[in-house]
Amino acid sequence: MNPSQLTDEQLVKIIRGKDRELYSQIIKRYQTKLSHYLRKFIYNADELEDVLQVAFIKAYRNLYGFDVNKKFSSWLYRIAHNEAINYLKKNSTGQISLAEVEYKLIDEKINLSEDLDKILLKKKVERYLNKIKLKYREPLILFYFEQKSYQEISDILRVPRSTVGTLIRRGKDQLRELLLNY
Amino acid sequence: MSENLENKIMSQIKSGKLKLHSRYIFLAEKLGLSSALVLSALLAVLFCSLLLFYLKETDNLVYLSFGRLGILAFLDSFPYLLVAVFVVLLFAAGYLISQSDWSYKKPFKYVAFGLLAFVLLIGSTLALTGVVRKMEEQAFRGSGPGMFFRPFFEQGIEMRGRGIVGRIFEIDGDYLIVETPHGLQNVSLKNLRCEQQCEQFKKDDFIIAIGQRKKDVFMAEKIQKIEPGRMPMIHRGIRRQFEIK
User: Can you list the domains of chain B with their CATH numbers?
Assistant: First the structure.
């Protein structure tokens, strides 16, 4: 069977069973997504790659700890999230960098006034996303930039589903306030 | 970067440097956590019932019937050790729940409230059954699983500094000689704030008094007569002291 047709969970079962080399499929599937996610916390590209590598290695080592009845992506994001938090505890943060597509997403979803200067806005979002408290920034990034559902965010951040909505709303309010006032 | 990272990790896997942790480690971790959680919750239930049993069966709460004067005797006989162990077990159970895979799905205050309700409900039900009484008997007999809880039961009949409970053995002028689980004790009535007279008491009456212990004599300030059934733990302690031995 073509590995690319398998679900993440099926892949994990096979990797745990016999074919360790299929882990490359997991890396291929998640490398870009996770580096995208980690870029919101880690400015330096080399450090980002190190953190990403540690996250993939930890995930591999702990594959038996994953419950195949749950969603693999949430489990992997949880590991990456923990690594990002560890990194932030050790290092001061720089300014995060948003891709063009992300900038469009935040513009649409946070509903800023239309006549704002778009280039200026992008720079502001980059600057002010970092100024929001981490506990609001994390769900905001997962929801708006990583397109995760409330349930997935709840599983990644280990907070109740009902709390996710509150955190996103407060984060959004803080970001809007920062963008409009400064 | 992308190919490079994949190659780095895959070369470690292929060379055998990077290995999967054994499934048994995760199994043991899960089993250990679940067992510790169940054990701490069950022990919390047990200590809750021991605490309620203590409050119901000893002199501790009765001292409060003396009003403000009884507070010191109440504090003196309060089961601090039982309460401390109970609280530690509750916190341990709460901590272990917070470490579980599912606890984050509900706000922790609900989980904590659920745990507390469970422990109090089952604990008070258990206290009403004869289980704890049986444990008390085992504790003093020194046999069966109840013997491990002896330090907690002993506090219920130990000698108090500010209060005394027992059965009148003899009335001698300004003194009462009272049978207690620790033998015969002299209770002086000289300091009695007395609307009460010694004549009110007769041999074999159960009494509870507050005051102060001075060497071998308990200087009573207030005394009440009580029904023997109100103080079963003390009663049994006296029986052990004077009849069984």
Answer: 24-155 (no CATH), 159-244 (2.40.50.140)
